[in-house]
Design a protein that fits this description.
By secondary structure, the protein is an alpha+beta fold. The protein has one domain: q2cbj1_9rhob like domain (Jelly Rolls, Sandwich). The chain contains three helices and eleven strands, in the order αβαββαββββββββ. The strands form two sheets. The protein has a seven-stranded antiparallel β-sheet, covered by helices on one side. A four-stranded antiparallel β-sheet has the order 5-10-7-8, with no helix packed on it. Strand 7 and strand 8 form a beta hairpin. It is globular. The chain binds N-oxalylglycine and manganese (II) ion. The site of N-oxalylglycine (OGA) has 9 residues, from strand 10 and strand 11.
């Protein structure tokens, strides 16, 4: 499948204007279901691991901050290859329109079991930054708002809620990694997603028109 070109333009405008975009039905349900099956199979066969916090050298598990279980995508299956190709298209669109110099995308499956959450955080810190743009794709069919597990995006000083996102299948949330603090509220049912990051070479990491 391909991303809708008109929706890509809207996403680019919104990213410049406010730093985030919530994109419903961005990715086809059939691809999302295939990815969900892989995630559930990884869970059943013990191939997920508890997510950590902090950079690689000081990585640690902290149950009070985040409780999801993850598995990095490697492109080892046709569904992963298709998903990663779609994200490469997105990367090209971001680079063409915003001169972001993104050169790489990394992504992991995440499973939040009942009661799991991820407290407010930034995906990247100014200065150390090479994560520039964050993406989250949701894989949950028939997700009801009362199941919880919303993604909440805040403004830069964490005082104002920008939006509260229901993690429904096919939805892709895109936001600037250094500027948008966000959290995952406790979920009442298992909640599946793919979180990913476009990275830049830190020496060239500039957005032409940063959102404020
Ligand atoms: C993350 C993250 C959000 C989500 O993995 O860094 O913020 O909605 N995930 O799963
Ligand atoms: Mn995050």
């Amino acid at each position: 499948m391909k991303l809708d070109p008109i929706a890509i333009e809207t996403m680019l405008d919104q990213l410049v204007e406010k730093g985030w975009y919530e994109w419903p039905s961005a990715i086809s349900e059939s691809l999302c279901l295939a990815l969900l099956n892989e995630l559930l199979e990884a869970e059943e066969t013990g191939r997920l691991k508890k997510a950590g916090i902090g950079r690689s050298d000081e990585r640690q598990i902290n149950n009070n901050i985040r409780r999801d279980q993850i598995r990095w995508l490697t492109g080892e299956t046709p569904s992963q290859i298709e998903f990663l190709a779609i994200m490469t298209n997105l990367q090209q669109a971001l680079n063409r329109a915003l001169f972001m110099g993104l050169f790489e995308y990394e992504a992991h499956y995440a499973l939040y079991k009942t009661g799991d959450f991820y407290k407010t955080h930034l995906d990247s810190f100014k200065g150390q930054a090479n994560r520039m743009v964050s993406t989250v794709l949701y894989l949950n069919p028939d997700w009801d708002a009362k199941n919880g597990g919303e993604l909440v995006l805040y403004n830069e000083n964490e005082e104002i809620i920008q939006t509260t996102v229901t993690p429904s299948i096919g939805k892709l949330v895109v936001f600037l990694s250094e500027q948008i603090p966000h959290e995952v509220l406790p979920t009442k049912l298992p909640r599946a997603s793919i979180a990913g990051w476009f990275r830049c070479n830190s020496s060239t990491g500039q957005i032409a028109n940063p959102a404020k």
